Amino acid sequence: MSQHVVIIGGVALGPKAACRLKRVQPDARVTMIDSQKIISYGGCGIPYLVSGDVSDPDQLRTTNFHALRDEAFFRQAKGVDVLSETTVLKIDRARKKVLVQEKGQKPREIGYDKLVLATGSRPRPLPIPGTDLPGCLAVGSMEDALTIREMVTTGKVSRAVIVGAGFIGLEMAEALTDMWGIETSVIEVADQVLPGVVSRTLASMAQKHLADNDVSLHLAEMVTAIEGEGKVERVITTKRTLEADLVILAAGVLPNAELARDAGLSVSSSTGAILVNKTMQTSDPDIYSGGDCVAIENLITGKPAMFPLGSMANRQGRVIGTNLAGGRATFPGAVGSLSIKLFDAGIAGTGLTLKRAQAEGFDAISAQVIQFDHAHFYPEKTLITLELVVEKGTRRVLGIQGMSKNLEGVAGRINAVAAILKYKPTIEDISNLELAYSPPFAAAMDVLNVVANVADNILAGRNTPITPDEFARMWAGRKDDNFIVLDCRDRDNAIKFLEKHPDFWMNITGETIQEHVDELPKDKKIVLMCNTGARSYEAQVKLTKAGLNDTVNLQGGWGNLRQWGLDPTTED
């Protein structure tokens, strides 16, 4: 007799597991249950549905050959029974039954041989008054997205407030601002956007880019209430009041693990998510789980972690489907790779940021570079900023993040590292990483190789760096600090800085600096700067040889500083 597999959850992992099982074991009986009416959709496409980039909601639900993935499709094309608008109330592991309640019906039991929990995650609730007002929404489902889209397209929204500056919050900010011209504010309790995902330097660059595109950011600020008469009208924070017609709650997600916990399955004490082994089995060998509701191994830290990504859920779904059919496929864990489009720029990252690495106990440093994505002589080129995080003693690469207006270019370089990160690559592996080269695609010494070389120079003590953030703090207190900026560029690049700040700015080209050592102050710190950090690094080596050791090199130079948002020529 063929086995009966019940799958709870019908968005990403559930459908993938069901279809894989039916391909490998066609006689299996599969029942997929979901509490929502709309199933099997691309949740990561919701911001683009709101923005209008995706014009038809059904586009998020169709296959590559334009078949709509609804109940009839799964029944006819896949042989999978679907119960939508059906809530699972309880799992009885001893009797191998689930108690379900279909819309408008009395609860009933469904038996299973194997069970799959694809319950996903939900938006983190905020314990503040007013979140139940009409016009205050999270982005937890297609139904939420369609409600927001209807409000926007019918002209009901002129001012929006987004709570949370993570991936979902920033994607929604772009969607509302770019296409619809809505006055959009983002409130974030942390002191940077994308906290825990990118470094402060890259976050500052993203913040400037968002501000340049008319998104208002309010960082290190907490929402205390949402108010209105019968609908959302204003948001109260610890620092201000913002008028709003729409509030989107995007303060992170929580795993939907209550069914599993109530059934006695093991859950992670740190994340609250369901614990699974490498075959995606829970603590009950007849129950599998995957996607946003599970904790898997972070292959950098070795600790359980949540990775709420549709791509992860689909890969895990295939593993589960294989194993339901008697296979022994495994999912080893993840390093955590992410990307986001912000207007015409892209940010991508994999592994750990410097702050996160240090918090995890790694003795780590980071190296930052900015360089063209193509050969410098090729007519079409764009700057890419990369930051590489490495462990000092082992020289192990722990993570990398980047930003560029070449979205595919920055994502491709991050993906190259992501693919090998679980094998514990070192600086040398990245320095010598082989990439396909041609001037229209990359430089002969690619920016990815260069950032590893910079890390090598930092660890060797040849390059003593300072980040744009650190320079900004020094510059803000320059009247009290004892330093000068030594501009290593040609004079025509430096002249406006010299004229604006003659007491703090000097200009000697990097190539001739050894001839002018006697002109430099011996009692002040010297901050070396060029366009990218390369000429100033060579100048630092020469000054060290000449006995001037109190020097720091601005990482990424003027290129990074300008994107960071500091322009000394406009400040007194």
From TrEMBL:
All residue ranges annotated as the Rhodanese domain in the record: 479-570
Annotated GO MF terms: oxidoreductase activity
Keywords: FAD, Flavoprotein, Oxidoreductase, Redox-active center
Source organism superkingdom: Bacteria
PROSITE patterns named among the record's database cross-references: RHODANESE_3
Keyword Oxidoreductase included in the entry's annotation: yes
PANTHER family attached to this UniProt entry: NAD(P)H SULFUR OXIDOREDUCTASE (COA-DEPENDENT) (PTHR43429:SF1), PYRIDINE NUCLEOTIDE-DISULFIDE OXIDOREDUCTASE DOMAIN-CONTAINING (PTHR43429)
Name of the protein in its database record: Pyridine nucleotide-disulfide oxidoreductase
Organism: Desulfoplanes formicivorans
